[in-house]
Every structure is written in C-alpha cells, then in structure tokens.
Design brief:
single chain, alpha+beta, C8orf32 fold, 4 domains, Transglutaminase, membrane, transmembrane, Papain-like_cys_pep_sf
Length: 752
C-alpha cells in the first residue's frame, strides 16, 4: 500500500469522523442526556486511532480487525458495561461474556425500551459498536485504498450508520433530519468527488451548482413532499409481546376487591391525597370497559419495556413511593402518578415489567406475587379546581370508538348537562348529578332494589332509567365515562385505591375497602383531571329514602264555583244544506295524482339507465353484509380489513398488490397523506392492520365482541377516507366497479 500525504489523511479523518459524530448524536436522546457520550466518543476515538495506526504501519486487514476486537473487549467494560468491571475500568471474565452477548442482543433491547433507555446492563454496547466499527471501517477504507474511487466509497459508511441511528432513534431527534441530510450532502459529496479525482477546477462551478440544487431540494422540497406525514420510527412499529386483551376487564373485579378484608399491599411514602392506580380503561363494547391494545399512540393497552429512566412532561410534586405486595394477584401493578423510574428488587420481575406512559399504568407479564417489593420515583400532578380549568377546551385525543352504548346514557347526559357551558362544566355537572341523585350500595337488597354488579349496557340502563339509582364505584364511574364521551369529551375509567386521608408518610395497608373507580377527562393545558361520581357510602337508600310522615293541611273553606257562562245560540243557517260548488281540494288532489303518475312514467327510462349503478350499489351492500355477519369471528375481522382496502380502491387510492396488511396500511397512509384528515386515516389503518394480523395469526380465536368492535373501527375509518375526498370523487366511488373485480392477487401475504 502506498503511503498517503499527511494533509490528505487529515482531511479524510476530519470529514468522515465529523459526519459520523453528527449522525450518531441522536443516540444521546435515546439513552438519556449524556449517558451514551463516553461510549460514542470513546468508540470514535478508538476506531479512528486503530485505523490511522494500521494504515501507517501497513497492518493487514485481518490485523486491523483483530485490533478492533481486542479494543472492543478491553475498553468496552469501561465505556459500555462498567457494572461488570473492577473499579469501573478493569474488565473481568463477566465483562467479556456480557459484551459478546450484548453485541447480539442489545439492538432488540434498545428497540423495545422506551427512551431514555438508560445504561443498565449492556444497553450501551449498541452505541459503542456503531461508533467503534463505523469509524475504523470508514477511515481504514479511505486511508488504505489503492485508488481514489475505492477511497471515495468510504462515504457510504456514515450513510449506513445514519440508517442504523434512524432505526434506533426517536420520532423527533435532537438534530433535525433536514440538518443532518444537508450536512452529509455538503461535506461527503465534494469529499467523495475530490477523493475520486473527479473534482477539477473547471468542474467547481458545476459541482457547486449540484450541491446547491441538492441543498435546496432538501430544504424546500423535502417538507413539500413529506408534508405532515409522521416520521417512521421502528420502535413505534414494534408490537409488544404483552396483550392486555387476553385478560378480563379489571373493572369487572371491583366487587371481588370489596370482599377482600386482608391487606392487598402496603405502600410507603404516598403523597397526601394521592391515588393508587391499578388499571386505566378507555374502550367500551357494551359489556365491559377495558384497556385498548389496538396499537394507537394513546392506547391504554400499549405496554412496553422501559429503561432505568422514564421521560415525562407532567408537572407536579416529586416523591419516592415504595410498595410491598401481599394478597394482590393478577398482572396489574399498582402505581402512583406518572413514573420517572422503577426500582424492582426481583430481577425476573424487572424483566417482566411493562409500562404505559400515556396512562401511568404498569403490568408484570408474569403476574404479581406475594412478597414482591419495588419502588417508583413519581411525579404527582396537582388536581386543578373546576374554576381554574374555566373555559379550557377538551384535549384532542384519539380514543377507541364506543360500542353498545345504552340509550339511557345518551338521553340522560343530554338532559343533565343541557345548561352546562364549558367542557369542565359539563363534566362537573354530570359528576354532581350522579353523586347527589344516586345511592350507594355494594349489592345489599334494599328498598326492593338490588345493586347488581357489572357495568354492561343493561346494568347502566337500570342504573340511569330505573326507579332507584343505586350502585357503587363500578357502575357510577362506568356510567359517567359513557355520558362524558357521548358529550364529545375524551374520558376514561380508572380502577385503583384511595386510602383514607391522614395516613401520613408511613406504611399504609391497602385493603378491599379502599378500592375505588373514578373518571378522568382531558383538558388542554391541564391534562387528565379526575372526577368522582360515586355517592358517599353513607348515602344509602335505607337512610335517604324513608317516607316522611305527612302533615295535614289546615281546612280552608273553599269558595263556591263560578256560575256557568252564557251560551250563545248558533246561527240559524249554520246547519243548512250548502249549494256551493265542490271543494277545490278535491281538484287539487286529482291534479297531484296526475302529476305523480306522469312523473312515475317519465322516471321509468331513468331507472332503466340507472339500473347498472343501482346493481353495483346493491352488490357492495350485500358484500359488506356478508363480511360483517360471517359466523366466523376471524373471517369477520379479515372481511373488515378487506372492506377498507375495497374502499381505498374505489377512491382510486389502492394499496397495491401482493402486500401484507402492514405494507398495505403504510401504502394507504402515504396515499392519503396529501388530503385533509390524512393523518387520522394513517393512524386508523395502521391500527386496523395490526389488529387484523393479530386476529388472523393468533393462536386464540377472537371473540364476537372483538369482531364487532373491530367493525366499528372499520366504519369510522371508511367514513374518514370518504370525507377526505371531494363529493364528486365520493359519488364516483359509490358506483365504481373497481372493488368488485377479481383481485385475488392483492390478498395479504401469509405473514404480516
């Protein structure tokens, strides 16, 4: 290998390592602040040093690779796995083993954890490897290449590292993607031309013009092309292994908690007036409130692994809360406020922890058990008063559509809140009405009315439309959430525990008598605000519905009735036979029927001409009916997805042939990106595709209620797709035969 001038080598190192440092910078946000800075800086320094030394001493390629592996092990302990070293520097056999395992497994861990992922275990190995291997490979190719064209190929390495960083990155990186792209073009394109020997003095103007066009296209053209389309992030497409829909509704166990007298768990450090959250539910199917694991961003059922630190934008009082589980069972883990860090003593339980930052809820996929101890660093938001919220509008939050809502909830909500003005006044009015007009009972037979458990449509109807409104937190919270949602506000039901006030910072034993359900409504600028519609326990029918003894009114002499008024005799000729002409109404009726008959005859040719269009509409209606009423729930769900694809095809925005459901969803999102409401369509089709794949390929068959709820989502998605186009396109789509043709090749593949 011929030696390279020092000046040329310095330019190579500065251009390549500088661009590598730029594309790796977004990983700082993924790991949290400066956590990954030593691993990135150390990897770049080591890789560059080994490449320069290997080029100067004419090492063979195998020697350079061996040197990189040795450096990875010796320095990897201090830079990427300090917990396995002695004094944070000296590697041990455990360091070598963990680094070897981390090189293969860290990538998946970083993708499945919510940023910031922290530095636990070997999480930093991914960042360290990208910096070390990327810098050594890029600099080695540039300095050791025998020809300029091969040396210019080193520019591919920063681009490849950029792709890896995008895969591991977040939706909004700290360095704007536009800035990164422009810098890469401005730096790497001239450098590669120079190293390939294509940069001549007479070509400087042409190269400058080319760079200017590229930069202008990136700055001006990219936003126009991309528009409002969200940046694709792989971690958001990862389907978590825990599916809460496999478990019964937590709210259905309300009465079971009430019967439990033994301590369920002990909590220490609970802030004053803080509530313990067990589960948050935002989907109703006419039978139960449950969590929604449909893949949407704000879904209550999207639980993911978290790192040692959890980012939150919630403001409030910070506290450290410690839990010790006693008799509590199931997968739902008690939490408080919004968590910023979890500290689980049991390693197995720590690996099974999943968290939902949209609701503040957590689960253990293996289930909680007696003796489990864990601590949470939390932020407890302050609860604003109704007057403080004032006229703040409701937050724009997409929630799963309601299904099977009883008419009693719709009618009662409109009647009770008809005089309320702002969204918070509507919520407060419904809360006050339920708490003041209802009675509390956990199921005792009182006053001839039994307080049954459950919160299905029949139970809510009997609560709101019966002779006596009686129930407990399960029914009142479920009813208020339905009423608030019917008034157009985002609402969800929370099951948790509210210990008696005045417990202090000491350990508090939480039992079944502390169980409670409440409603949370979201307002802009204030987040989710809790409401308690349950009447106080002392407000029972036995004490409140007693008949009061009647007090006789004093007798008063009534005045005599007034004399009857004078009767006016009828006119003499009012009853005489009439000799006028027949009523003109009869002639008008005859004229109407003649016009109607003529119009009917004239409409026959029009009906004949329109019959093909009517046949198309009828065939589509029959196809939709057949899909929706299929006895097989799997076929019903798959048919719902086919209905979405057929709608897109009729709207001349097909998803393409031979595509999986997820690929079709991405294609639909792209085709609707340039129309009003396109972002909503993109969110919905993505969730529908994932839900359909889960129903088709899951080992368990979906329930009929799940298929019904899925079709409700399909209807809303189809409606959003139709509204996104003009009325002419909408009419043409109704009578289009595109979706009626044989399109078997566009069926989803066997894998998703």
């Amino acid at each position: 290998m011929t030696s390279r001038p020092a000046g040329r080598a310095a330019v190579d190192v500065v251009c390549l390592v500088g661009t590598l440092a730029l594309v790796l910078t977004p990983l700082l946000e993924v790991y949290g602040g400066r956590t990954a800075l030593p691993a990135l800086a150390g990897g770049l320094l080591l890789g560059t040093t080994l490449a320069v030394v290997g080029s100067a001493r004419r090492w063979s390629a195998i020697t350079v690779v061996a040197a990189v592996v040795v450096a990875f092990v010796l320095a990897g302990g201090a830079l990427a796995a300090p917990s396995t070293t002695v004094a944070g520097v000296v590697p041990t056999p455990s360091t070598v083993l963990d680094l070897a395992r981390g090189a293969a497994s860290t990538w998946k861990q970083v993708l499945t954890l919510q940023p910031p992922v922290g530095s636990d275990g070997t999480l930093l190995v991914a960042a360290y490897l990208l910096a070390l291997v990327g810098s050594s490979l890029a600099v080695s190719v540039a300095l050791r290449a025998r020809t300029g064209a091969v040396a210019a190929a080193a520019a591919i390495v920063p681009v490849a590292v950029l792709v890896a960083t995008i895969v591991l990155g977040t939706r909004r990186p700290i360095v704007a993607p536009l800035v990164t792209g422009v810098v890469l073009v401005v730096v790497l394109l001239p450098w590669a031309a120079w190293r390939a020997g294509l940069l001549r003095a007479r070509r400087v103007v042409a190269t400058g013009a080319l760079v200017a066009v590229a930069v202008g296209a990136g700055i001006v053209g990219a936003p126009v092309v991309v528009g409002a389309t969200d940046r694709l992030v792989v971690r958001d497409e990862m389907v978590p292994p825990f599916d809460p829909r496999d478990y019964p509704s937590p709210l259905s166990a309300f009465r079971e908690f009430v019967k439990e007298d033994a301590p369920l768990f002990t909590v220490s450090g609970l802030p004053e007036n803080a509530r313990v959250r067990l589960a948050t539910m935002d989907r109703y199917d006419g039978v139960v409130w449950n969590v929604a694991g449909d893949g949407s961003a704000q879904a209550s059922g999207e639980f993911r692994r978290v790192g040692s630190e959890i980012d939150t934008t919630v403001r409030g009082d910070r506290a450290r809360v410690e839990f010790t589980v006693d008799q509590l069972t199931g997968v739902w883990l008690p939490t408080v406020g919004q968590a910023t860090a979890f500290d689980v003593a049991d390693p197995d339980a720590a690996s099974a922890l999943r968290y939902n930052d949209a609701t503040g809820g957590a689960v253990l996929t293996g289930g909680v058990h007696r003796g489990l101890e864990y601590g949470i660093d939390v932020v407890v938001p302050r609860v604003p008063a109704v007057t403080e919220v004032g006229t703040a509008p409701a937050s724009d939050i997409a929630q799963p559509p309601l299904a099977g809502v009883p008419d009693a909830a719709v009618v009662t909500a409109a009647d009770v809140a008809r005089d309320a003005g702002s969204p918070v006044q509507i919520s407060a009015t419904l809360e006050s009405w339920l708490a003041e007009e209802g009675y509390f009972s956990h199921g005792v037979q009182v006053s001839g009315t039994e307080s049954l458990s459950g919160h299905g449509a029949d139970r809510i109807t009997s609560l709101l439309a019966g002779d006596l409104m009686v129930g407990d937190g399960e029914q009142y919270a479920a009813a208020m959430a339905l009423m608030v949602r019917e008034m157009g506000l985002p609402a969800r039901v929370v099951l948790g525990f509210v210990p008696e006030p005045g417990a202090g910072d000491g350990p508090v034993e939480v039992t079944g008598k502390d169980v409670q359900a409440w409603v949370e409504v979201a307002f802009q600028g204030y987040g989710w605000v809790p409401f308690d519609p349950t009447p106080p326990p002392e407000q029972t029918p036995q004490e409140e519905d007693q008949e009061k003894p009647s007090e006789p009114n004093p007798q008063v002499v009534q005045p005599p009735p007034p004399p009857p008024g004078a009767v006016t005799p009828p006119d003499e000729d009012t009853e005489q036979p009439q000799t006028n002409d027949p009523d003109e109404a009869e002639d008008g009726s005859a004229l109407f029927w003649r016009i109607a008959r003529a119009a009917g005859i004239a409409a026959v040719p029009l009906l004949v001409l329109a019959s093909p269009l009517l046949v198309v509409i009828a065939l589509k209606a029959l196809r939709r009916r057949r899909r929706r009423r299929s006895p097989d729930p799997v076929a019903r769900v798959a048919g719902g997805w086919d209905e979405v694809l057929d709608t897109a095809r009729d709207l001349r925005r097909p998803a393409g042939a031979l595509a999986t459901r997820n690929e079709s969803a991405r294609a639909l999102a792209a085709s609707f990106a340039d129309v009003p409401g396109g972002a909503l369509v993109a969110t919905r089709v993505g969730a529908l595709a994932r839900s359909a794949d889960h129903a088709v390929f899951s080992a368990t068959e979906p329930s009929g209620a799940h298929a019904t709820a899925y079709w409700a989502d399909v209807e809303q998605t189809v409606d959003a797709m139709n509204r996104s186009v003009g009325w002419r396109r909408r009419v043409r789509a109704r009578v289009s035969t595109a979706s009626l043709k044989d399109h078997r090749n566009r069926r989803p593949k066997g894998t998703s």
